[in-house]
Amino acid sequence: MNNLNEILEKASKEHWAVGHFNVSNLEQLRAIMEAAKELKAPIMIGLSEGERKAVGLKQAVALVKAFQEEYGLPVFLNPDHSKSVELAKQAFDAGFDSVHIDLSKLSLAENIKGTKEVVDYVRAKNSEISIEGELGYLRGESKIQREIIEIKSEDLTKSEEAAEFVQKTGITRFAGAYGNIHGIAANEPKLDIERIRAIRKILPENVSLVLHGGSGIPDKQIKEAIAAGINNIHINTEIRVAYIEALRKSLAENPDETVPYKITPQAIEAVKQKVEEKLKLFNSVNRV
Ligand code: G3H
Ligand code: ZN
To answer: pTM above 0.90?
Structure first.
């Protein structure tokens, strides 16, 4: 299996993006793995802090490893949005294939200090691992939000600060705020494509540019973002919604069914279709 840094660099040169999909149970993971296998796409599987609590660190590692072995696919497990140095280290020590340390709530200096601490810790044990840091303020959370979410200009990542952050921390994936939010809000997002282009230009070529909050962004903007330099896109809310809506429907249609695995196939299929749609949009089909 090629390492994640190499795959992301290839994606960057060829103008496509590696999909990062969040899970909190085996059904979602299976659905995503089946989509990746069918479309021959390298992928990342992410678990936020809450999702990690629900699944368990060792359990997540074992499940993804089982799919890696059985499907023979490049799939990388990522501790999405680790909000503390300790939790990032803990996930790496448990066997995650990638790290995401998100100290974006802190000042630039404190963010650099903590992110660098994680980079040093991880690299001392594994020099090839891909590590993501984050700078800028991303509003929202991974759910459907009924209200309008307004983004302020001070939320957005400044390219000079992005360059300083990357240079001082040594991360290989950079996540910024360019008009994206977590979740789906009442208003349509409007990505700042010029800002993405400027950040891409100022960062070293081997550093990936990550787009968080991929749910709810119109396809046209996703394509423009990839053309401007995004090579890694996170999707969570759309997967959650596909899963829960199909599950609700299945439960309503089969009120007497008590066998769990007879209720879940529709939900698995709904997630699989959603992920296939995204892999095609990211132009990551037939890249394995
Ligand atoms: O890290 C996870 C993602 O950024 C998910 O965002 O829920 O808007 O798809 P989303
Ligand atoms: Zn995110």
So the answer is: yes
